[in-house]
Amino acid sequence: MRNLYLILFILLIGAVLSACSYETETGGTDEETAIIQVTNSSARQITSIELKLYQNDMVQASPTVMNADESLIVMGEAVDFEILTQDIDFNEPVVIEAVAMIDGVEVSAGTTEPMELSQGENYEFELARDPELQFREIQED
After folding, report:
1. Are 32 and 118 in contact, with CB atoms under 8 Å apart?
2. Residue 109: pLDDT above 80?
3. How far is CA 10 from the centre of its chain?
4. DSSP annotation string for 48-78
5. Alpha-carbon gap, residue 39 to 46, rounded angstroms
6. DSSP 86
7. E strand or H helix at 31, and its extent?
8. 48-106 pLDDT, tens per residue?
9. What is the spatial distance between Cα 107 and Cα 74, in angstroms, rounded to a whole number?
10. Residue pair 99/65 in contact by the 8 Å Cβ criterion
11. 125 burial level (CB within 10 Å; 0-12, 13-18, 19+)
């Protein structure tokens, strides 16, 4: 009888751990995130791109993206940033600053005007040179 209780206890623990693991894997859905895509439109080869998300004059999040194989982000290549609900308050305006790592030096590409981000939306920006590195939203025609 004692072995039966032990087996049931082990099965119960396994079921709980499996449910927690599944919740962790499926927890981040598109409704809870905003995707910011940044395209390198300059001729510069970029090691990494960091976005600093400001709300109320404070950095709330600063995700950084680089290629998994540590190769350079070349002209025309786009990288995606997933902004989660725990990163920012989607009810408050956000100012985004882009910082690119070029030849081992951090280069600020500028900031956006205060803007509202919405969950489940995709936003497209580019790093362009004219003549200095600029961070700007891609306008749909």
Report:
1. no
2. yes
3. 38
4. EEEEEEEETTEEEE--EE--TT---B-TT-E
5. 11
6. T
7. none
8. 999 999 999 999 999 999 877 878 999 999 999 999 888 899 999 999 999 999 888 99
9. 16
10. no
11. buried
| Bridge partners for 126 per DSSP | 39, 136
Length of the chain: 141
Q: What is the mean pLDDT of the chain?
A: 86
Q: Which residue has the tokens 């751990």?
A: 17
Side-chain-facing half-sphere of 105: CA atoms under 13 Å: 5
Q: What angle do CA 109, 43, 34 make, to 5 degrees?
A: 50
Per the CB < 8 A criterion, the answer to whether 66 and 50 are in contact is: no
Burial code of 42-51, b = ≥16 C-beta within 10 A, e = fewer?
bebebbbbbb
Banded model confidence at residue 112, pLDDT cuts 50, 70, 90 = very high
Residues 65/81, Cβ–Cβ less than 8 Å: yes
AA letter at 8: L
